């Protein structure tokens, strides 16, 4: 690895010595070159059979060489990343050219090499602290998965009814944006938000009460275990019967699902204050209320956030499932159930995407809020 | 048996004793247990603590020294006998916030900065914000923590945390400071340093201190009187006057007077067979 004082500067700066990772990348690449890359118009197509494939190949080899000769490992990693992008673009290009990739092993072996190379680059990048490690690496990882999905689905011509390619889902997202927005407003902004606030608020309030009245806690906690075992598909139709088609029935399902997690977490949080801290408040002649506000609630914050985060995902699931059992003709659950029946799987997947993004958005927002308010907690401290 | 309660004159000045700050008469505390063999934590304790004294309660674990301190602070209720704090019941004294309590652990709230931790008792007392802050700054300066106001407790060393907790107790401006093995968890070097600091603090503020410890050297170094206690049942074996000069440096621990008092304390502890088990 170290630079040796030889006359041939070119070979010394090539970091190739005993790089088994690179060998692991080279082997499937060489194997790929012996295989056809697919078929076009019924004829088998080789690497050098009249496509732009050789150009991609040369580009990739050049970036690997440039990466090996780069002054630092990190700069090398960025250069190699460009090569990986090129390698991943090759199958997409061939697909656009109308090449049937499932007819040959060449591109797939090449992709295996590209995945190994991505593995190596991500390994190098994740050694770098800060923005690179926390944003770039997971971003590239996710992007890699999406592109792999795209290539596999299109390469093997998976029917869109089973699994559409990400590009088709994105297309449906754009095309049906107004409808999806209405669904989002109905399900998330109306049902989930109200049900979530009601459920978490009630769970919190009853926990405060149960903390004052011990028999309430003793009576309610076993019920909490029972309620957490209730299947949402079981209570959703009942709630629709009780509260009608509109948001009230969805909110009711959410309240049932979120009440006990919030209650249990709040109670656990309230009882987490240490004896010595309570004695301290007692020595100040602080009453119940003061002790609650100055000590027990701040101390319970990590527990409260735990409950809030669990409930944010439960609430979304509850609302969507409840919409299967009756809703005005809008809402994410309604959309999924009707479009499945009409075989419009693109829209279903677009709705699922919106739901997934909403769920992780809610969770992520709460996690950020938690980090801001409980930076003091040992699990959050950054020294 | 228990020692006679010394009704005494103030050793340093020879003046007649003013009203004692703490007075206990045949105080006992029995914990009921599940197996019907109640534990006697305190048995027939008589103790008088005069204003301005530094009294150490010393003894092996289980001798009731912490329990006695907690009874004074109204954190435990005695099952027999009488006790007054500033002429009031411990509960009245607690409600009037007449004492400051320093616990074994700093018990600082990790979500508050050091300064806001010291301001906590003042917040509860309803003192206006500006005064709260001024008093917190003053007490932090007194314990040598100026410049650490905005730090969080977990960014401080163990010794600094315990100093912050002393500042918090002082912020109440109590005449009586109750300390339960405050330096027990610290290393010996830090402990020496804080002992020196504490004795200077006591001299400069003229407060009455009740200090629980299981270190003989610490007790002799800090105290004007040492109460030797023994377990099973928790009782007072001896009360030893510690008439070293009030102004003390760490060097005093090498003096023969110091050694003589330490010897008496050790004898007192032996008498209770407290090393037997």
UniProtKB/TrEMBL annotation, chain A:
Protein name: ABC transporter permease
Coiled coil: none
GO biological process, one term: transmembrane transport
Pfam families the UniProt entry points to: BPD_transp_1
Subcellular location: Cell membrane
Gene3D superfamilies: MetI-like
Major place of residence: membrane
Keyword flag Lyase: no
Occurrences of domain ABC transmembrane type-1 (ranges): 203-357
One term under GO cellular component: plasma membrane
Topology of this chain in the membrane: Multi-pass membrane protein
Segments passing through the bilayer: 20-39, 45-65, 77-95, 101-122, 134-152, 188-210, 222-245, 251-273, 314-336, 348-369
Keyword terms, alphabetized: Cell membrane, Membrane, Transmembrane, Transmembrane helix, Transport
Automatic annotation (TrEMBL), chain B:
One Gene Ontology MF term: ATP binding
Keywords: ATP-binding, Nucleotide-binding, Transport
CDD domains recorded: ABC_NrtD_SsuB_transporters (cd03293)
One Pfam family here: ABC_tran
Record domain ABC transporter: where: 24-256
InterPro entries from the UniProt entry: AAA+_ATPase (IPR003593), ABC_transporter-like_ATP-bd (IPR003439), ABC_transporter-like_CS (IPR017871), ABC_transporter_ATP-bind (IPR050166), P-loop_NTPase (IPR027417)
Family in the record: Belongs to the ABC transporter superfamily.
Protein name per the record: ABC transporter ATP-binding protein
């Amino acid at each position: 690895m170290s630079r040796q004082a030889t006359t041939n500067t070119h070979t010394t700066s090539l970091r190739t010595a005993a790089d088994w990772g690179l060998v692991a990348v080279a082997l499937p690449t060489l194997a790929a070159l012996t295989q056809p890359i697919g078929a076009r118009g019924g004829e088998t197509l080789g690497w050098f059979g009249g496509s732009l494939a050789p150009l991609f190949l040369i580009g990739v080899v050049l970036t690997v060489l440039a990466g090996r000769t780069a002054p630092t490992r990190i700069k090398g990693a960025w250069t190699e990343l460009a090569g990986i992008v090129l390698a991943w673009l090759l199958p997409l290009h061939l697909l656009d050219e109308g090449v049937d990739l499932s007819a040959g092993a060449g591109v797939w072996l090449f992709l295996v090499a590209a995945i190994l190379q991505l593995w190596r680059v991500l390994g190098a990048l994740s050694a770098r602290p800060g923005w690179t490690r926390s944003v770039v690496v997971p971003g590239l990882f996710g992007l890699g998965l999406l592109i792999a999905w795209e290539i596999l689905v299109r390469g093997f011509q998976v029917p869109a009814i089973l699994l559409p390619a990400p590009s088709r889902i994105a297309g449906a997202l754009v095309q049906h944006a107004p409808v999806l927005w209405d669904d989002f407003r109905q399900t998330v902004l109306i049902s989930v938000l109200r049900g979530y606030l009601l459920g978490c608020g009630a769970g919190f309030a009853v926990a405060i009460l149960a903390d004052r009245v011990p028999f309430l806690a003793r009576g309610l906690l076993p019920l909490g275990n029972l309620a957490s075992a209730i299947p949402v598909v079981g209570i959703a139709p009942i709630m629709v019967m009780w509260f009608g088609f509109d948001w009230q029935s969805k909110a009711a399902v959410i309240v049932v699902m979120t009440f006990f997690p919030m209650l249990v977490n709040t109670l656990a949080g309230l009882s987490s204050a240490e004896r010595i801290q309570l004695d301290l408040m007692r020595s100040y002649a602080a009453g119940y209320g003061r002790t609650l506000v100055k000590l027990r609630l701040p101390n319970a914050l990590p527990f409260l956030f735990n409950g809030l985060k669990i409930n944010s995902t439960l609430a979304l699931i509850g609302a969507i499932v409840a919409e299967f059992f009756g809703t005005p003709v809008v809402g994410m659950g309604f959309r999924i159930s009707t479009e499945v029946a009409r075989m419009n799987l693109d829209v279903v997947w677009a709705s699922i995407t919106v739901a997934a993004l909403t769920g992780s958005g809610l969770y992520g927002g709460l996690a950020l809020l938690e980090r801001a308010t409980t930076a003091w907690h040992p699990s959050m401290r950054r020294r | 048996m228990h020692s006679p309660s010394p009704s005494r004159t103030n050793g340093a000045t020879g003046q007649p004793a003013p009203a004692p700050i703490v007075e206990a008469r045949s105080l006992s505390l029995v914990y009921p247990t599940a197996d019907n063999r109640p534990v006697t934590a305190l048995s027939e304790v008589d103790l008088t603590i005069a204003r301005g004294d530094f009294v150490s309660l010393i003894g092996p674990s289980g001798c009731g020294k912490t329990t006695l301190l907690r009874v004074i602070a109204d954190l435990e209720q005695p099952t027999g006998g009488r006790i007054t704090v500033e002429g009031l019941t411990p509960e009245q004294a607690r409600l009037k916030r007449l004492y400051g309590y320093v616990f074994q652990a700093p018990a600082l709230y990790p979500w508050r900065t050091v300064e806001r931790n010291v301001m906590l008792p003042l917040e509860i007392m309803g003192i206006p914000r500006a005064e709260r802050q001024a008093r917190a700054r003053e007490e932090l300066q007194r314990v040598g923590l100026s410049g650490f106001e905005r730090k969080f407790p977990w960014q401080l060393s163990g010794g600094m945390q315990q100093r912050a907790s002393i500042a918090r107790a002082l912020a109440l401006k109590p005449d009586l400071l109750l300390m339960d093995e405050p330096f027990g968890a610290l290393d010996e070097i830090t402990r020496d340093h804080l002992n020196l600091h504490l004795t200077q603090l006591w001299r400069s503020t003229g407060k009455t201190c009740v200090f629980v410890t299981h270190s003989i050297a610490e007790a002799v170094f800090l105290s004007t009187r040492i109460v030797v206690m023994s377990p099973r049942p928790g009782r007072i074996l001896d009360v030893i006057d510690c008439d070293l000069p009030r102004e003390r440096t760490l060097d005093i621990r090498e003096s023969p007077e110091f050694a003589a008092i330490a010897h008496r304390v050790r004898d007192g502890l032996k008498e209770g067979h407290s090393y037997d088990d």
